[in-house]
Amino acid sequence: MPNAQAIKAFLVEEFLPDVPEAQLDDHYDLLENGVIDSLGLLKVIAWLEDRYGINTDEVDLAPESFRSVAAIEEFAAAASGAPAEAA
């Protein structure tokens, strides 16, 4: 089941090694602030496929779905058929 904590842990490990997970706000714009670029977006999508069993061939991969931890969580929940946890 998708959750913000697992998403934050992944993002910090892959893209923000100097930032504690607790400091990454659920609504921080990852794209606008340059945390995730086009190659990073592919890495996030691959992780979501592996972690949550999402078939990305069957879902819309709009950039807005990857702007923040909250957006990624909502996308993962919708794509995997699980409800998103309250932030």
Strand and helix layout:
Blueprint: H1 4-15, H2 38-52, H3 69-80
Q: What overall form do the CA principal axes indicate?
A: globular
Query: Helix-strand pattern, N to C?
Result: HHH
Report the sheet-strand fraction.
under 5%
Average pLDDT reading? 90
- The count of DSSP E runs of length 2 or more, i.e. the number of strands, is 0
Major sheet characteristics: none
Share of helix, binned: 40-55%
Q: Pairing-aware structural class of the strands and helices?
A: mainly alpha
Question: How far is it from the N-terminal to the C-terminal residue, by CA?
Answer: 14 Å
Radius of gyration from the alpha-carbon trace, in angstroms: 12 Å
Helix tally?
3
> Unreliable segments (pLDDT under 50, ≥5 consecutive)?
none
List the keywords.
single chain, 87 residues, mainly alpha, globular, Acyl carrier protein, PP-bd_ACP, ACP-like_sf
